[in-house]
Fold this protein.
Amino acid sequence: MLPVDVLAVTDPLAWVIVVLFGGGVLAERRYPDLARYVVGGTWALFAGFWLLLAPHFFFVSNSIVEALLALVGVPACLYAGYLLAGGRDSLFVLTRAVAVMGLVYLPAETLPFVRQLLVEHVASQTALLMDLLGYDPSLQPIADRREAYAGFEAAFFFETPDPTHGGIVYNIVMACTALGSQAIFIGCIAAVKAPLRRKLRALAVAIPVIYVLNIIRTTFIGLAFGHQWFDGPYGPYLLTLFGESDPYLVSHIVAEGVISQTLSVVALVAIAWFVIRELPELLVIIDDIAYMVTGEDRDTAAELGLLPDSPDDAASAPRVSDD
């Protein structure tokens, strides 16, 4: 476990980053040089944000995938800031996307009443699906958690064969709501210039699909953890790897940190492919990422034959600098 609550630092830092990103984007047209340096510096601050979160994902959330993604995000953010400050203005699209993502996600992360409404809704839907599958979970207030979730009606209790253990408790928290994934798609879709009808079509598919898959995910994790579906001889190795000692946590680590996280990445890639086919303007973000990795400019939309073909669509196609 971590000696300090990292979220007490990263939550306010996230608001600062969103405000600076938003301010830089608004200043882009009138003061482009100033905007490049403000946003470029904010990307460096964003790198520090992910560096702080990496150990939290690994030791607290028990998620290898999220921890690795956070570590990859550190040099990626630093390089993005360097490129934007140097004149790669196409990165303003990604900056707008991140700013909108923050505006969608941060209220639930930092405002208790919004967080409670969202967490308890996901918990009630998870309980409903468990009930439909023939299980009878006991939903009760969260206890023995950090203050942010105290009293939320979002904890599932499962009895164990060992009467001295005290039972298994599966808590629904912000990480279980999939709001982060939804915010990513909302931010990216909002950031590009494209006809509203295509943006709405992309949102109408991406957000409901993520919502439904997430309820299936929380139900699977809860039942796997509560009924110890993945208890096995590999348990001691996983507990050592994640710095845990309770053998009942093995099923939770496998169900959430390995199986669910991996399948979530696959599902998000599939959803992203649909959204990109609907909004090829988003490929400017992919082109920027490819440039950061390879150092070569690409026009992925043209390569895939996904360029807008109507006059209105062509007028809204992304503009990429020749830097």
